[in-house]
Amino acid sequence: MTALSFSTSSAAALRADAVVVGVAKGPDGPVVASGAEAVDKAFGGDLAAVLETLGASGAEGEVTKVPAGDGLKAPLVLAVGLGAAPDEDEDEAFDAETLRRAAGSAARALAGTKKAAFALPAPDAVTAAAVAEGALLGAYAFTAYRGEQQGRAKGRKGAADRGTPLAEAVVLGAKPRERAYKAAAERAAVLASEVHRARDLINTPSNDLNPVTFAEQAQAVAKEHGLKFEVLDEKALAKGGYGGIIGVGQGSQTPPRLVKIAYRASRADRHLALVGKGITYDSGGISLKPAGHNETMKCDMSGAAAVLATVVSAARLGLAVNVTGWLALAENMPSGGALRPGDVLRMYNGKTVEVLNTDAEGRLVMADALSRASEESPDALIDVATLTGAMMVALGSRTFGIMANDDAFRTTLHEITEEVGEPAWPMPMPQELRKGMDSPVADMANIGERMGGGLVAGLFLQEFVGEDITWAHLDIAGPAFHEGAPFGYTHKGGTGTGVRTLLRLAERMAEGDLG
To answer: How far is C-alpha 392 from the chain's CA centre?
Structure first.
């Protein structure tokens, strides 16, 4: 994990391997952003001109490296684009997400560097926190399966170092002794390390991460942080009537698990329950996915990873709210014993479900976990899942959908996603789509109309939420696993989507903001 510190030192005086400055798009060319005055002075006030000569425009995420002059302790200046320069009369210069992404872009570009000073426009604790979060989230690498240690031993130092994240980030202009800044630094460090935990889990291949080993990792984490832990194995699941989880997992040689991991605050009267989809590999089962659609299906446990990371974050930050995580873990595989299209499952809450498509398996394991979580009557119940390709068709690969049984709660969640920088959009729950899940042999089917498939999945899950419980469903199928070029603080592979939103929700509940 990258070391983080705040400092009031001048960007010119601090010893570092690089100093990061912001550059914006002005009407007549790039403009050096505030926070970098000392660096600009070292260039005789001509830093913007130098950057423009090198092709910099100030476009968001653009990175330009310049050798530093004699007036700086750091040998390198890295200028990162912030986008359009704000009008002079605007109260706020750059929003938190712009700074978060800029710091992330800079941290990615500085992989293999020991120490970098971030002299971005962060005039208060909120913006300093954004810079810190972006830098730490951008300083990530999943190297567990790379031969870097062997390469270093053989003298290929450069190749090994390129896969090493920035070792230390110093946010300049921040006041490390003030309470608000101390809290911001602590939160940023915890948040980033737990997002990294989620990313590591998502990126781990399915031959190493299966329902059993995932549960074992969750147990180890619970022990480390003093969390309550319970796991139901296949025998306990069968005895307890968890037909959805058992049905999905019965085709795999690795049996399913249901994990409960809970943080109990010393003084709290609010309870947040989180349910995460944990399909450690999704082949589609008997309704087999075609080639080209199964290569990244190790990521189908991203919801469970986000839930685990959120519970641990709440504990590490000592939030005054009880948080319970439910990880519905199974592997969806075809075999002679696998679930068949046409089979009927009796779910944990007693409802029967005719399985018409075994590739609509996530909702089956989630249904059992939602029913079980409802028995504890939480004040809010959120499920998070890479649930449907239909949501990706609707919203693209960077935005997740929010559905809820309470419009005000859905609006609150959407506001939180905008605050933390996780793109999302509120989606409806059209009741007319429920009829499409009617079954002639069971209480309902696991699929309905093809059009609006993401909405149908949400309606299915709602059937398993207890009465009078405020509930929301986050379908993170699009942004959970990034297959394109890295951008901002987002790397290729697992993203840890959902952790920041869920943690902020827990904080809001702890603060008494939500009812």
So the answer is: 16
